[in-house]
DNA sequence: GTTGAAAGAGCGCGCGT
DNA sequence: ACGCGCGCTCTTTCAAC
């Protein structure tokens, strides 16, 4: 991946579109090259799909909860991971170092549903304890991972030369 | 938003594409109706853009850190929020109730960069203390918020009738 | 609100350079 | 890496229900 790829990905993130035409206007890269590059990025596994940016508040999933999960997983964490991911509403799950074993983020329709969620976690055998933190306001939701980086930083970090 | 809209959004999430043709195959909804619906969802603010699903590991942002930020924000949290979001690498930020004031998730190229990140937070005036948790493995990264829900649950939660 | 047909625009892809 | 051109998909409109 070189600077051009990075500029392309950043442009997609900034513009919020994958349209070759629009990307060409932004990056000055010829349309057919954009095509060529995007295909390579696809094959490299960097780009996986095309999706939409959803406004979760507008959708009706306005409640966000961050849950720390402490668990007793004997040996492998695989099975427990599966169970955690199986709980409806879980949008993110991280297996972590340190005091807590997992950090989970969930999106729910309303506060009432939080009870259901916590109960679902507590009902999992391996789970010892959960610690929930309510989110008052979601400042950034992670649907555009490249958003926070400047183009220069990205080029410096990710470009091969 | 009715059941049909929900089925459409779920299909987009499951298939990982916004292609009207593919969505038609999946949902049985005629192509021109899919167009009509998607436009309405756009105007309602539910759909905001079209993006790509990025594999952050493949991209070179393989390190994930969850940071709890304790801060002394006098009155409004707006300004502090801006400063937190200004730190490069921050993909998610939540203003929360409870012991911690903010929960932040960041994606970084390598562990060395974590130091830069923490320092950037500590350099913000209002920030009193930070507590970082390293992520060993990212089990789900939140780029498809509807993923965890079954179609039935979504219809029950979000459809108007 | 839903649908099909039809026309126009934009895209996907291969070839040649 | 880039331009060109063909065929295809998607987009938009419109008339009908």
Describe this structure in words.
Chains A, B: InterPro entries: AsnC-type_HTH_dom (IPR000485), Dimeric_a/b-barrel (IPR011008), Tscrpt_reg_AsnC-like (IPR019888), Tscrpt_reg_AsnC/Lrp_C (IPR019887), WH-like_DNA-bd_sf (IPR036388), WH_DNA-bd_sf (IPR036390). Chains A, B: It comes from Halolamina pelagica. Chains A, B: Keywords: DNA-binding, Transcription, Transcription regulation. Chains A, B: One of its GO terms (molecular function) is sequence-specific DNA binding. Two copies of one chain form a homodimer. In chain A, strands 3-4-2-5 form a four-stranded antiparallel beta sheet, covered by helices on one side. The first copy, chain A, folds into two domains: 3-52, Arc Repressor Mutant, subunit A (Orthogonal Bundle), CATH 1.10.10; 56-134, Alpha-Beta Plaits, CATH 3.30.70.920. Chain A starts with a helix and ends with a helix. In chain A, β3 (90-96) and β4 form a beta hairpin. Chain A is α+β, with helices and mostly antiparallel strands and 161 residues long. The longest helix of chain A has 13 residues, at 3-15. Chain A is elongated and about 55 Å long. In chain A, α1 crosses α2 (20-27) and α1 (3-15) packs antiparallel against α7 (151-158). Chain A has helices at residues 3-15, 20-27, 31-43, 56-59, 78-85, 112-122, 151-158, and strands at residues 47-54, 63-71, 90-96, 102-108, 127-141. At the A-B interface, α1, β1, α4, α5 and β3 of A face α1, β1, α4, α5 and β3 of B. Chain A binds a DNA duplex (17 and 17 nucleotides) through α3.
């Amino acid at each position: 991946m070189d600077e051009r790829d990075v500029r392309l990905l950043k442009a997609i993130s900034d513009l919020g579109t994958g349209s070759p035409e629009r990307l060409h206007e932004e990056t000055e890269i010829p349309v057919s090259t954009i095509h060529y590059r995007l295909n390579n990025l696809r094959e490299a596994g960097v780009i996986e799909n095309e999706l939409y940016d959803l406004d979760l508040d507008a959708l009706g999933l306005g409640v966000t909860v961050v849950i720390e999960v402490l668990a007793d997983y004997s040996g492998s964490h695989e099975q427990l991971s599966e169970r955690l991911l199986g709980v409806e509403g879980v949008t993110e799950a991280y297996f972590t170092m340190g005091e807590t074993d997992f950090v989970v983020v969930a999106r729910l329709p309303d506060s009432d549903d939080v009870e259901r969620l916590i109960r679902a976690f507590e009902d999992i055998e391996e789970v010892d304890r959960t610690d929930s933190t309510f989110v008052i306001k979601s400042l950034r939701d992670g649907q555009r991972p490249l958003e926070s980086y400047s183009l220069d930083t990205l080029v410096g970090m990710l470009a091969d030369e």
